[in-house]
Amino acid sequence: MLPDIQETYIVETPEQALALLNPLRAEMLSHLAQPASAAEIARTIGETPQRMNYHLKALEKVGLVRKAGTRQVRNLVEVLYQAVAKTFILSDSLNLHPDTVQQMKDHGSLAHLITIAERIKRDSLLLMEKSDASENVPSASLHTKVRLANEAQRSAFVQEYVELVKQLAGKYGKDGDASETYSVVLAVYPEPERTAGPEQPARPVRDSNEKVREDGE
Predict the structure, then answer these.
(1) How would you classify the pairing of strands 6-11 and 36-37?
(2) Residues 138-180: pLDDT tens digits?
């Protein structure tokens, strides 16, 4: 019998830290609280089973996931994997300078932002095809700006932001009989300086379904 999944796992090796801060592998871990196969994870996040299998083996090699059995699917035997914990924390024993840790976290968050942006674009194009075919596609988008004075205020804003999203997702995400799953993608990042030039009109993004993710943890 497999041991129960831990609430929190302390990441103690650089190899684990690097694997965890890879945005794709971090997203895979978020879907492995329950045993799942490479094919299941691939369907969930829109990747190929071959790519998921490669990353699952890499995560297993550094001890962040473990094999959780097998399952017969038609003529194939699927290997099931499970994360060793629900959340992961970088250990002080890594002896990384705090600035280095923060830089690693920021880099991982920004890389994940790029991944999510690409996924929104891909999903939006597919949904627009349905809309062009006269199919009703409910969607919503929101863009706003907030001015934050210092690091303490930024940190407080992000914490409250995450908690409010958790509450909202929990309130509406408990209905197991829901006929559709909707993607909710939210992001917070500093507005980059833009080169001088004519303003381009913003094109609304059609959201379709996604998890809430806490980056930088």
Answers:
(1) unpaired
(2) 888 888 889 999 989 988 998 898 899 888 888 886 665 656 7
Helix (H) / strand (E) element for 90: namely strand 85-90
Enter the pTM of the model: 0.49
Question: How far is C-alpha 162 from the chain's CA centre?
Answer: 14
Q: At what angle do helices 38-45 and 23-30 cross, to 10 degrees?
A: 110
* φ, ψ dihedrals at 32, nearest 5°: -115, 25
Q: Report the distance separating Cα 65 and Cα 84, nearest Å.
A: 5
User: In whole angstroms, how far apart are CA 2 and each of 20, 66, 67, 86?
Assistant: 22, 9, 9, 15
Burial class (CB in 10 A: 0-12, 13-18, 19+), 189: exposed
What is d(CA 174, CA 211) in angstroms, rounded to the nearest whole number?
13
Neighbours of 70 (CB within 10 A): 13
Distance of CA 123 to the CA centre of its chain: 16
* Segment holding 164, helix H or strand E: helix 151-172
Closest of 50, 205, 211, 187 to residue 125, by C-alpha: 205
| Entry field: residues in the chain | 217
Nearest of 99, 75, 88, 79 to residue 33 by alpha carbon: 88
